[in-house]
Design a protein that fits this description.
The chain has about 80 residues and is an all-alpha fold. Helices cover about 75% and strands about 0% of the residues.
Length: about 80
């Protein structure tokens, strides 16, 4: 299994929190929150790609390890 740096876990949590905030929104509020989620998602994906390249690891394996680490340490923020 790929070692997951804390920074990647923090970024993934942030993206998941932004995704959870979409619940119940409509119209302009939804569109604005969707942009926040996309920005957070792009940040984590970029960091994953950079980490994978730097460590010569599979980007897919790094991403899966990050997602597993986040899910193993917290509840789904959309369920709160």
């Amino acid at each position: 299994m790929t070692e997951v740096p804390d920074e990647l876990i923090k970024l993934e949590r942030s993206a998941e929190e932004e995704r959870a905030k979409l619940a119940g929104l409509t119209g302009d509020e939804y569109d604005a929150q969707l942009r926040h989620w996309r920005d957070a998602s792009e940040a984590v994906q970029g960091a994953i790609a950079m980490h994978a390249e730097a460590t010569k690891a599979s980007r897919y394996e790094v991403e899966q390890a990050v997602k597993k680490a986040v899910r193993d340490t917290q509840e789904d923020p959309a369920v709160e």
